[in-house]
Amino acid sequence: MASVAPNTEQHDDADSRGFIPIAVDTLLPSAMCDFDLYLRQIRGGKPTLYRRRRYPLAQNDLDRLIAQGVRTLHVLYDERDLYANYLKTMLVSQQQFTPAQKYRILKAAARSMLTENFSSGSLDSHLASVDSLSQQMVESICNDDMLLRDVFLLMTHDYYSYTHVTNVSTYSLALARALGMSEREELVELVSGALLHDIGKRHLPPGLLNKPGKLTPQEMVLMKQHPQKGFEELCLRGDLTWAQLMMVYQHHERLDGKGYPVGIGGGEIHPWAKICAVADVFDALTSARPYRKPNDPEAAVEFFERRAGGAFDAEIVRCLSKLMRPS
Predict the structure, then answer these.
(1) Is there a cis peptide before residue 261, judged by omega within 30 degrees of 0?
(2) Is the pLDDT confidence value at 14 over 60?
């Protein structure tokens, strides 16, 4: 793959500081980047310098990368804020982008950042990616005031880990706004919590996450451990709020006490975890699984309406119904 890497050189000092992955689809031709771009040519190998900062990519450079199957480049972890600013500037300033195009760019960013970090990246790198994505999602979706039913059509519904957490964060953002949340900082925190809600699955056997059929009772016991494992991994950090931790720990709890990992009742479940619970199940119902076809949105809404006030918060279900059936 050497043909895609002009200006390539080994950069051991950079590798020791870590990287975050970025999607090739988020890079514009002829745009100046204030950060170096790195290419990992061998899976698990050290990234090498692909293009120095302020040396613009041409369209044929991007086409060559994509033609050779390169969908992800890397940015130094220490320069993650520079990429975040680039992504924000691109989404805000490029007038030719429609809201739908902006959302597709965000999906591409999520795919690269979350897929690699979820499976093998450091926790710090994963949280840096989550922080960057959550800010861009709130700015883009709130500024464009996109309707949830329109966003739904832009989503991928395949239930892979990165797809699922991106969808859940989008649904959670829409529900929170419908419930009256409007402070941008609070919305960013909620979206970050939703992007992290399944982080405990990092500690489950890969074969369990990708199993093509239904889980056995023994496998389900293992699967039900992921909220606890996620909470344990994050709870001692000082950069997450209690509300975010509860989204990780309680998103499978139910108002009637029939959830997990503890089986607590509605009064003990954090409001943000109740939002995440509805978003999580809605995406699960409307996504294709190896063993069943997806439900259409109307059938999924009816599922919640039958359980409103029982398993799920009635006000959140009302908001979901209104968002998916606007008059």
Answers:
(1) yes
(2) no
